[in-house]
Amino acid sequence: MLPSTITVLGMKFEIQYSDxxxxxxxxxxxxxxxxxxxxxxxxxQAQKDTLFHECIHxxxxxxxxxxxxxxxxxxxxxxxxxxxFCDWVTIP
Length: 92
Fold this sequence. Notes:
By secondary structure, the chain is of the alpha+beta class. It is about 35% helix and about 25% strand.
């Protein structure tokens, strides 16, 4: 079973699993609302990978770095970190 909450850099986020197919998203996150949304139609492994990806976005936001970089640069940075460390990270 995937977690319903996760703490990133000391900030707790609610994780919502729902069908995001119509929005064409694997997941997204909102630091102000402290919510991470994951597409429930994905395989369990894809949901875990997406959760890791969104947690990296939240770490950037909690650290205040999202004010220093553009959306495209942030996404490139997140993907770099995700692929560099995805084999090392285990989400229960």
